[in-house]
Write a structure and sequence with these properties.
Oligomer: heterodimer
Number of strands of chain B: 2
Helix content of chain B: 40-55%
Shape of chain A: globular
Shape of chain B: globular
CATH topology of the largest domain in chain A: Cytochrome Bc1 Complex, Chain D, domain 2
Distance between the termini of chain B: 57 Å
CATH class of one domain in chain B: Mainly Alpha
Radius of gyration of chain B: 20 Å
Strand order of the largest sheet of chain B: 1-2
CATH architecture of one domain in chain B: Orthogonal Bundle
Structural class of chain A: mainly alpha
Strand content of chain A: under 5%
Largest sheet of chain B: 2 strands, antiparallel
Helix content of chain A: 40-55%
CATH class of the largest domain in chain A: Mainly Alpha
Number of strands of chain A: 0
CATH topology of one domain in chain B: Cytochrome Bc1 Complex, Chain D, domain 2
Largest sheet of chain A: none
CATH architecture of the largest domain in chain A: Orthogonal Bundle
Number of helices of chain A: 10
Strand content of chain B: under 5%
Largest interface: A-B, 24 and 20 residues
CATH superfamily of the largest domain in chain A: Cytochrome c-like domain
Number of domains of chain A: 2
Chain lengths: 205, 215
């Protein structure tokens, strides 16, 4: 009940923030713009990630990094750079809070046969190949924390392309991921993305 | 007399054998990795422990290794393998390291000296300093500085605490006997169980905050 009330309060904040912008026809409407690519309940599609249940500090950080062009992945450039140009820091903050409280669903669209291998890499890394454990930063249930994103349940193709793009030099300023992901083989990436797509939001609170 | 000297001779012979064997193992170990392999392993350690070994706050706090005592690092890496210290991730990490690699890594981290990463609460620094320097005699808690040194730099198997991550030190102080000092009574960590078990949460926070700011 408490959660619902606070959610309603935040919704009110977001929509009231959108209110004044509606009056000004040249300005974008924050929430409706998000839904075009990320879906009406923010569950995402294969290329635009799920935002529902994502960590608020992470969302806010990413919105800022689109704005400062630090996150320069192909789709980020094409879609997110223009999308955030008129976003005020306060609206970015309110949006992040709102999205983080939406209940998420796991995509479950990876290769089930690779999930066990992916889980092993996620939990323990591969010390012989100098591949670090993902769990130590992203959490036992891939739930993320603070500015570190929740990975559990994201779409296979989104996870795969992000992991590939770290190795290709995109989003290079966002340490330590570029160095970690560049160690992963194509097989490792497929396995990790598969495993993570199935992780349910058990610990979603 | 004869018996004693025979025993001594035997002991000497065994010792000589042990040392020559250890010497040979070390020689083999020294040649067992190249400069680039060491570089790759260092980069691997720094993925989690920070580019300058300053530590990193992930889901779990990854401890600062910069300036750490080499003997402490070597002992802890052995402790992971021998299950005196439980940590499934570090168990695997430690398993992939040869003794000579461990020595090389420890020597490297010893020389690093980045600033502490900060982020600790500032309310109880004075209390932390008092406990660190004088202990809590009425609660039977000795001064931390007695073993860890007046500047918290540590010595041999006793770790440096200066600049250590606040949440890491808090977790360690709350977890003695669950995570460390297991298995063998000889583990140097075992001494920390009776040393810390009278500390309150506030006192633990105060100590961890104080040492986290020391350079």
């Amino acid at each position: 009940m408490k959660l619902i009330t606070s959610k309603m309060a935040i919704l009110a904040v977001v929509f009231s923030a959108a209110g004044p912008l509606l009056a000004d026809e040249s300005a974008p409407i924050p929430v409706r713009n998000c839904t075009w690519c990320h879906g009406p309940s923010a569950q995402g599609f294969s290329t635009a990630p799920r935002l529902a249940g994502q960590r608020d500090q992470y969302i806010e950080n990413q919105l800022l990094s689109f704005r400062s062009h630090i996150r320069d992945n192909p789709y980020s450039k094409q879609y997110m750079w223009p999308a955030v140009t008129n976003l005020s820091p306060q609206t970015a903050h309110d949006l992040a809070t709102y999205l983080s409280l939406l209940p998420p669903k796991a995509a479950g669209d990876g290769n089930r046969e690779l999930a066990a291998v992916g889980r092993m890499i996620y939990e323990l890394g591969s010390p012989e190949s100098n591949i670090a454990s993902c769990l130590v930063c992203h959490g036992p249930n891939a739930e993320g924390v603070r500015e570190i994103p929740r990975l559990g349940g994201l779409a296979y193709s989104y996870l795969k392309s992000r992991l590939e793009q770290w190795g290709e030099g995109f989003h290079a300023a966002a340490g330590p991921m570029p160095r970690i992901a560049s160690k992963l083989s194509p097989n490792d990436i497929e396995a990790l993305a598969s495993y993570l797509s199935f992780v349910e939001y058990e610990s979603f609170e | 007399m004869k018996v004693i000297s025979l025993r001594l001779a035997l002991q000497a012979a065994v010792l000589a054998l042990v040392f020559s064997a250890a010497g040979r193992a070390d020689e083999i170990g020294a040649a067992a990795f190249s400069k680039s392999e060491l570089q790759a392993k260092l980069e691997y350690c720094k993925t989690c422990h920070g580019l300058s070994g300053q530590g990193y706050r992930g889901y779990f706090p990854m401890p600062r290794l910069a300036g750490q005592q080499p003997k402490y690092l070597e002992n802890q890496l052995r402790a992971f393998i021998e299950r005196r210290r439980t940590n499934p991730v570090m168990f695997n990490v430690a398993h992939a390291l040869s003794p000579s690699m461990v020595a090389a890594l420890a020597a490297h981290f010893r020389e690093l000296d980045p600033n502490p990463i900060g982020g600790a609460p500032k309310e109880y620094l004075a209390l932390g300093k008092t406990i660190f320097e004088e202990g809590l005699p009425e609660a039977n808690v000795p001064a931390c500085s007695a073993c860890h040194g007046p500047e918290a730099k540590g010595r041999d198997e006793i770790p440096r605490l200066a600049g250590q991550l606040f949440p890491y030190t808090v977790k360690v102080l709350m977890n003695w006997g669950k995570e460390r000092g297991l298995g063998s009574a000889k583990d140097t960590s075992a001494i920390m169980v009776p040393t810390t078990h009278n500390l309150t949460q506030l006192q633990i926070d105060a100590i961890a905050a104080y040492v986290s700011r020391l350079k």
